Amino acid sequence: MNVPTPDRSLIVAAILLGLLAVVYPAATAYAAGAGEHGDPVAPVLVALVLIGIGAALGGRMMRAIGQPAVLGELLVGMVVANVAYYFREPVITVLREGATMSNVIRMALEQNLSLPEAARHVLPPGEHTELLASILGGPSGAMAVNVFDFIDLLARIAVIVLLFLVGLETSVHEMRKVGLPAFLVAVVGVVLPFLLGLFSMWLVMPEAPVQKDIFIGAILTATSVGITARVFRDLRQGQRDEAKIILGAAVIDDVLGLIILAVVSALVVSGSVSVGVVATISAKAVLFLVGSIGIGVWITPPLVKRMARLEIDNVKLLFGLGLAFLFSWLANWMGLATIVGAFAAGLVLEELFLDELKGHSLRDMLSPIESLVVPVFFVLMGMQVKLEAFADWRVIGIAGVLTVAAVVGKVAAGYAVSRRLDRLSIGIGMMPRGEVGLIFASIGKGLGVVNDAVFSAVVIMVMLTTLLTPPLLKITLARSAKA
Amino acid sequence: MNVPTPDRSLIVAAILLGLLAVVYPAATAYAAGAGEHGDPVAPVLVALVLIGIGAALGGRMMRAIGQPAVLGELLVGMVVANVAYYFREPVITVLREGATMSNVIRMALEQNLSLPEAARHVLPPGEHTELLASILGGPSGAMAVNVFDFIDLLARIAVIVLLFLVGLETSVHEMRKVGLPAFLVAVVGVVLPFLLGLFSMWLVMPEAPVQKDIFIGAILTATSVGITARVFRDLRQGQRDEAKIILGAAVIDDVLGLIILAVVSALVVSGSVSVGVVATISAKAVLFLVGSIGIGVWITPPLVKRMARLEIDNVKLLFGLGLAFLFSWLANWMGLATIVGAFAAGLVLEELFLDELKGHSLRDMLSPIESLVVPVFFVLMGMQVKLEAFADWRVIGIAGVLTVAAVVGKVAAGYAVSRRLDRLSIGIGMMPRGEVGLIFASIGKGLGVVNDAVFSAVVIMVMLTTLLTPPLLKITLARSAKA
After folding, report:
1. ipTM tops 0.95
2. CB within 8 Å of chain B, chain A residues 325-354
3. Where is B116: in which H helix or E strand?
4. Confidence (pTM)
5. pLDDT tens string B377-393
6. I need a labelling partner for B22 at 20 to 30 A (CA). Which of A246, A405, B156, B222 fits?
């Protein structure tokens, strides 16, 4: 990484980071050996410190070369995880499995399997699976699972906090203003990648059944708004119309994605789709969005007034985060992504608290929490970039085709809006597939329509669209800000 | 609970709490049923919101009747958990098992047992164990374990944050000033409860082997400083000499407790004790305290200066919490309690940050985090107060004797200091056994010297010393403040 002004402190800090990376495996091994008497929180603390130092240094380095901090967090996660994996460090090897590890743990607990057995059920047979199984069955296995569970849940809470903050800085009124362009971007951004995915899979694997092509097309429709939201925050451009259109389109995308997933899954499983199921899902999703925002705007002001009389310390923070958590839970209950709920909660609250002036502002109080937890999500996401996935030429071929389809489809969607806007930035902002694409892919794996080569290719496509977005968005936003 | 000024908002809030308690089981059941597609963070979010609302209301009610907020958090946890247990709510039934559940989960993961099998291994046979086993093996089992793991680790981090804050507000210089009285309180507070425990066990169960009496005596020597530290914070009296003596004595107690535990365990297992082992443990503990504080005070100022040049956002917060987490981990590595490390980190940092003035003060930034996470620890502690433990007369008898020994031993220790100080408050402040006593007891259970009746009695003793401390300390501190 080329830092223009070589700074002694940076070097000192990097050495510290290197030292920690060496100390960590030894420390965790000892902690596992200490057994009964040790506090299970100890390895979690080390993991949190490592992530915190890594995120701070990575973010700082990127800012030094004019890039958004989030790119540094992703890269630090990627580098540390791949180096640690090379040395077979147990905790990080488990952490970089991400959603797959969640499935392994759930399967082990629900079906009364041992962890290694569950790993062999969930993952494809091979050297990597055996390594994981031996780690999970070894002396550090339970500890690594414990650390994974905590960091994974903390990262999920982190995106909720991030999208809640983004929602706080956006108003319902503003969102309604960008309603039409956001809708156009969402629809084009779903239809085009779907068709391109279908077509390119037919090109690459003409022998595959059409249901498989349809599922891959469906995977390409996903949008993960976390990365884009962070880039806009890092560059302090969150108030631009482009940012709001992307957010609105991402929310609509989530609803459309839900419907597509249901339709495609039904097609794969039973060969047919019932109109009733699609109508029910659509109705539930729309009901949640309209209902939560409508009821929220109507019920929050009197509730806040009552709260003010209670004189509870930091009531704003408790109420704000409480609402964000409840809305996230409600969204999940309705089958939507939790972050859609968090964003809706932020939309509802926005300026209501400005009336009741006691204490610091909600945003000020959330700032330290944001700087502590949000990087956890992005470092963990970077950790899941597996460089060994790039070792198979066939996989790279499929991945290349999928990535082109994924990028072209979403970038073109940006051009669905008026010429006055920065259409290229909107398109690039819609690019990252993130965890949403991975969730789609793992469901496809469960249904048997996504094999290991295609799954790896999807993972590469998700990684590329995720890693390319911050630097590209930075360039296009700087250009349009000048114009 | 008699609130002097019946407040409409309080009633509204209480209704909200009741509603949540009803909604929660249904919601978690649905979440478990939703399976693969649901986000595993959803039930965690509901649990956090419930704990947050409960803590805020409980704390508010106690302040309304002039009691420290921590008592409200303990009572809300106790009431909610026992009501939910009565209705067999799965998540809370799992949460209230506390350290026992950690053992069950670890055993299941490490020894490749199913969760119900592990529960039957760890817990005594009976109706309660079968209920737990059926919950753990049921559809919500994996979800409940997931929620438990997260909340449990978050609570452990919460005490670390609390003790770090307490350390921040205390200086090394001040601690050295109270060194002698703290040492006297610690030594008397270890020797006296040990002898009283030994004697009273001999009175109650003269047929038991002497090793058992010795182990019970050892359990009574523990001090859990979390409750007392919170009470002093709630009443804004943390700067009194009494508070510092209690903190110092608690730290010394932790070291002494470590040695006692090693000696007693060795006595039980092998019938003899090697001087070498005791010397090694003592040396390690002293080395940690002297070393960490010494090196910390020496190395932190230059490190902070370098950090300042890095220009990382919220660097104070990252550095402060990072140091607290690292010291906690180090303490655990040395066999001490994590909170001893957190307190030492706070001692080291104290005023150093006042030089480097950029950004808000560390304490200001920690305040929202404190108000969000610290109550989690105390609500969870309250949840572990099992009212059904009071159903057996024999257990109550043993518990009564143990509680008297525990209270008298520690209160008398307060009288080891000068007459000018509030000796009764110091003694009462040393009373709570908290999780330290429970950890001792569960080790004893593992060694086979603590049977179920005695374990239940120890749990009651821990609960009573913990619940009695806040109101008693409030009375004695108010009296001595007037004098």
Report:
1. no
2. 325-326, 328-329, 332-333, 335, 337-338
3. helix B115-122
4. 0.84
5. 888 888 877 787 777 88
6. B156
